[in-house]
Design goal:
This protein has 169 residues and is mostly helical. It contains eight helices and no strands.
Length: 169
């Protein structure tokens, strides 16, 4: 990115505005890609804990914190600076979710029941559609609730997960 900024300055000083605009486009694309990668990382983290919850049929405080934090971070990252539009629109999550789910299953295999299942066995032991539906419900909340109210709503959703009633007590 430093090289791009040096070139941008040079192009502006030389009056090469079309070249400068090209650099600006590159910088915008790099920024968008970095944000999408961060969102994907939090999505994987979210899914790992939802998978553990489903397979182990319990909800630890650590998992609940991680799930809630992931959703809050996704909400924050996904909202563009103009506060009116999103990097990932509500109807665009499917491809992101498919990729993240595959990565999450792989990563969760070392955590579920202390590594009892390899990734292939774990995939057979989860209901992928159910995990996706829960994830979609949580992601939908990022478009519906404000930064102030979403945390309480997430807590309510967490209490509905397996083991959520005990976690809430």
């Amino acid at each position: 990115m430093t090289q791009e900024l040096i070139e941008l300055r040079q192009y502006i000083e030389e009056g090469r505005y079309q070249d400068a605009l090209g650099i600006i486009d590159e910088l915008e694309e790099m920024s968008k890609k970095a944000i999408l990668e961060k969102i994907q990382s939090f999505l994987v983290r979210l899914l790992i804990h939802l998978i553990k919850n489903q397979v182990e049929q319990r909800l630890t405080n650590s998992w609940a914190v991680s799930i809630r934090d992931s959703i809050v971070k996704i909400q924050s990252l996904n909202l563009k600076d103009n506060k009116k539009s999103y990097y990932i629109k509500e109807q665009e999550w499917q491809d992101f979710l498919e990729e993240a789910l595959d990565d999450a299953i792989f990563a969760a295999s070392i955590e579920v029941f202390e590594g009892k299942y390899n990734p292939f066995q774990l995939r057979e032991n989860i209901n992928e559609e159910e995990v996706k539906n829960i994830t979609y419900d949580l992601l939908e909340m990022t478009y519906t609730y404000s930064k102030k109210t979403i945390r309480g709503e997430i807590n309510h959703q967490l209490s509905k997960l397996p083991g959520g009633d005990k976690w809430k007590q």
